[in-house]
C-alpha cells in the first residue's frame, strides 16, 4: 500500500471533494484523482463514490479511512516521541554500578541529572563488576560503572576518575596501637573483605600479590556496609575506598592504618558496548559525570 496515495485518499474522504483536497495538499485535481484511482486499483475496491457534487466514501472507503486515521495518528505520535527523546523530554537511563560507586558517588550525580532532565526515567542497579559486565552484554543496562578490572574486547572502557583505598580498623584494635605497621602485620591479622567478584577485592588482591602477600579472610561479606559494621565490631580490619569510610573515621568509629610504604589507588571505569549507538539519555549522563568529576577535582560545587 502506497502511503502517499493513502494520505491523499484520506484527505479527499475527510474534505468530501477532489478540489478541496487538491487545494489543501497543493496538488492539481488530476494528480489527486490519479493517486486515488491508483489506490483503488491496488486494493481492488472502490473507495469513493463520485457524485455530481463531491464524493462520498463507500463501505470499503469508510473502513480504510478509519485505519488510515489511526495509522497517521501513530505516525504523528512516533514523531513526537522521537522529538522528545532528542530534547530529553522523555527517555530512560539504565545504569549498572558496582557498590562503592552506586552507593557513594552516584546519588549526588543522579540527583543533578534528574534536576536537568526530569522526564527521563532513571534505573540504577547495584551489583559487582562481574554482574555489570553480564548486564551490558545482555543489553539490560546502557552504561556500566565499575571498580574492578575489565578486559573484554566487547566493551569500550575508560577511567573516569580514581579513588584511594585505605586500611581501617576499630579504634580499640591492637593493630591501631602498632607504631610502625607493616603489610606483614596486616597479612597476619583477620581481614574482612567483600565477596569474590567484587571490584574492590580484585584490586586489593592484585596489589597484595605484588608484595607476595595474601590476606587471612575471616569473613567475605556482600556489601560495603556489612564489612564496615563487622570491622567496627572488632572482627578484623579491612581495606576500603576512603570516601566509603570517611564518616566513620570522622566519628572515631574507625581509624586509618598507615602501613609503611603503602599507597593504593585504583581507577574507576566507565563501560559501554562497542559499536552500540549510545542513547541520548546515556550520553547526557556521561557528559554530566565528566562535568561533575572535573568540578570536584577543581573544588567547584556545581549545585
UniProtKB/TrEMBL annotation:
Keyword Cytoplasm: no
Keywords, ordered alphabetically: DNA-binding, Transcription, Transcription regulation
InterPro entries attached to this UniProt entry: LysR_HTH_N (IPR000847), LysR_subst-bd (IPR005119), WH-like_DNA-bd_sf (IPR036388), WH_DNA-bd_sf (IPR036390)
CDD domains tied to this protein: PBP2_CysL_like
Pfam families xrefs: HTH_1 (PF00126), LysR_substrate (PF03466)
Superkingdom of source: Bacteria
Domain HTH lysR-type residue range list: 1-58
PANTHER family reported for this sequence: HTH-TYPE TRANSCRIPTIONAL REGULATOR (PTHR30126), HTH-TYPE TRANSCRIPTIONAL REGULATOR CYSL (PTHR30126:SF39)
Family the entry assigns: Belongs to the LysR transcriptional regulatory family.
Protein's UniProt name: LysR family transcriptional regulator
